[in-house]
Amino acid sequence: MHRLIPVLAAVTICAAAQAQLIVGNDQSGTATIYNVDVGTGVATPLYSASDASAKPWGMAYDPSTNTLYWNAGGTLYSSPFGAALTPTNLGTMTYNDANVNFVALSFHNGKLWGTRNISTEAVYEIDPTTRVAKLVYQYNSSYDFGGLEHDMVTGQLYGLSDTAPAGGARGLFEIDPFGQTEVFRAPYPAGETDIDGLAVYNGKAFYVTDGPNTTQQFFYVFDVATGMQLGTLPSPFTGSGTFSAATYVPEPASLVLLGLAGLVATRPVSVVPTPLPNSQSM
Q1: What is the pTM of this model?
Q2: What is the DSSP annotation of 7-52?
Q3: What percent of the chain has pLDDT over 90?
């Protein structure tokens, strides 16, 4: 029965929450975490506050429990995802028994994943319960991965780098943390050099700028396979942030299909023995 949890959690998501891009930045004063409709571009506030609880550096979504995670520096928050957020301060994240911060988050296979842009720059796996991180892949410091997201459909990890590796360009990279490789997939739009929020779903990448929307008007949508820009979404950020964060929450129907696919993939195979001929039967 426990295998049905992802499906049941998907069904309980607020009906108003269709395919949504969830975004926030760490602007001064009052900050807001928004739900951006990827079809219309309309941004709906989910939570506002003047303290760190509304100023994410990284963000991730766990579809199996319908939980939104985000962090401000080293502090991890969570909330059930719905029409409004009710943040819970889960505590401080650690690595090697020291408090650490992360500039980006993703969720995959029951764990949070994060990157750091100081000290040991790397991809880390973070236990969401203990908040203890372990280093998975220390990439070349010529990269500056401020955005991170697994594509929920494919499981592939992607990162946005504000810096260009030698002979390359800043933009979207496919990251293989176990094979320890990066592959360039799509550039930054012309004139953009600082994009810290990333969401990826079913081959589409959403670049989320820091703001304010008076100078950075748009978020950008790219096709991962072709590297081509597909369009833009209006930014709702009214202030300038050092960091921005994003994740993607599919519509409930897609979550149910993903859950069912998981059930099929993990369902034990029943082997029916072939009866022996009568002459050989016992």
Answers
A1: 0.85
A2: HHHHHTS-TT--SEEEEEE--SSSEEEEEEETTT--EEEEEEESSG
A3: 79
> What φ, ψ does residue 137 adopt, rounded to 5°?
-150, 115
- Per-residue pLDDT tens for 75-98? 999 999 999 999 999 999 999 999
Integer Cα distance of 105 and 84 in angstroms: 21
Give the Cα separation of 227 and 185 in Å (integer). 6
Length of the chain: 282
With b for 16 or more beta-carbon neighbours within 10 A and e for fewer, the 58-96 pattern comes to: bbbbbbbbbbbbbbbbbbbbbbbbbeebebeebeebebe
Per the structure block, which two tokens stand in for 214? 């008076």
Contacts of 178 (CB under 8 A, 6+ apart): 136, 137
Handedness of CA 204, 174, 133, 129 (dihedral sign): positive
CA distance 192 to 194: 6
What is the residue type of 54?
A: A
- pLDDT tens digits along 43-63: 999 999 999 999 999 999 999
> Would you put residue 125 in left (φ > 0), alpha (ψ -120 to 50) or beta?
beta
Q: Specify the DSSP class assigned to residue 217.
A: -
Closest CA to 254 of 172, 185, 151, 174: 151
Distance of CA 275 to CAs 223, 268, 281, Å?
53, 22, 8
